Amino acid sequence: MIVAIDGPAGSGKSTIAKEIARQLGFNKLDTGAMYRAVTFAALDRGIDLDDEAAIDALAEQIEIRFTNGTGEDTRPAAPVITLKVDPGGYMEEIVLFCIG
Q1: What is the DSSP string of 41-91?
Q2: What distance lies between CA 97 and its chain's CA centroid?
Q3: Which of 90, 98, 93, 88 is nearest to 33 (CA)?
Q4: Which residue among 12, 32, 69, 97 is least enclosed by CB atoms within 10 Å?
Q5: From CA 33, how far away is CA 36, in angstroms rounded?
Q6: How confident is the model at residue 5 (pLDDT cuts 50, 70, 90)?
Q7: Which of 38, 52, 53, 47 is nearest to 85 (CA)?
Q8: Can you give the pTM of this predicted structure?
């Protein structure tokens, strides 16, 4: 089963998702973290965020690992990265690639 929670930044989506997942025994996948990870990797490599082909190729090359809060690299959550994330455009392709 897949449950999607959509809403603006800071509206409590992650908090609600964590609690729902806990109560139902589901895994929680933070797609926002995936967006930030790919955006961070693109910026780190000097890839133009408007170059969808390069972003797609990058998504196929990098490995995104979630650590459940232990030893997590917080750089992708930095405001400068979050502001660069485009929730439209290439991001839909990134989610489809990451979750198959």
Answers
A1: HHHHTT--TT-HHHHHHHHHH------TTSS---GGGSHHHHHH--SSTHH
A2: 12
A3: 98
A4: 69
A5: 5
A6: confident
A7: 38
A8: 0.62
pLDDT value at position 62?
86
Element (H, E) at 7: none
pLDDT in tens, 12-26: 888 888 898 899 988
What is the CA angle 89-92-96, rounded to 5? 150
Q: Helices 31-44 and 90-99: crossing angle, nearest 10°?
A: 110
- d(CA 17, CA 93) in angstroms, rounded, equals 22
| Whether residue 38 has pLDDT greater than 80 | yes
Please answer whether residues 62 and 21 qualify as being in contact, where contact means their C-beta atoms are separated by less than 8 angstroms. Answer: no
**Residue owning tokens 């170059």:** 51
- Rg of the Cα trace of the chain? 14
